[in-house]
Amino acid sequence: MELQAARRIAHDLQAKEHRTLKVDLRTFGHSALTDKIEVPKDRAAAEMTQGIPVTYVPARNTIFLSFALAYAEVVKAGDIFIGVNALDYSGYPDCRPEFIEAFERLANLATKAGVEGTVKLKIHAPLLHMGKSQIVLKAAELGVNLGLTHSCYDPDPDGRACGRCDSCVLRHKGFEEARIVDLAR
């Protein structure tokens, strides 16, 4: 579902290029999103802030950023963007400012471009310190069609959101607080 949503969004935004890589994190498992582990549902907001949930995918954002870093170096780009959020999130360690800062340091130490100083690599996380309602409002301001997006951790076979997992609950709360109708529902 996420890949389909990414294609729809890239097309809608008239992206110059949209690439996908086959990376199957089910090989490692150990997450409700990549293994046969039940996705938590109907959790209270207080529960969502306690510890790292079973929906955490080990090193997922590190893996994503590593691929983006390799591609950025190939095309001589200095800017890499990631949509992590440290406020209304589920406690994932790779969504924190410390992680983003550390990865940026790594990027400049672990690449030819960084070592030779031909490109100063910068990791941008524009949503990092925004609440979900702020993200919804910013997207509306920028004309982003959030109806094309997908957030659910446990969609039905037709891709419809469950409405009960942490991601759905946080998304609903964000749209409600922003007073904007979620057209993806």
Number of helices: 7
- Protein structure class: mainly alpha
How much helicity do the residues have?
25-40%
Strand content: under 5%
Q: Can you count the beta strands? A: 2
Main beta sheet strand tally, sense and closure: 2 strands, parallel
Strand order of the largest sheet: 1-2
Q: Which CATH architecture of the domain at 2-130 would you pick?
A: 3-Layer(aba) Sandwich
Given this structure, which CATH class of the domain at 2-130 is correct? Answer: Alpha Beta
Report low-confidence residues grouped into runs of 5 or more. none
**How many angstroms does the end-to-end distance come to?**
14 Å
Radius of gyration: 17 Å
Mean pLDDT: 94
Question: CATH H level of the domain at 2-130: which superfamily?
Answer: HUPs
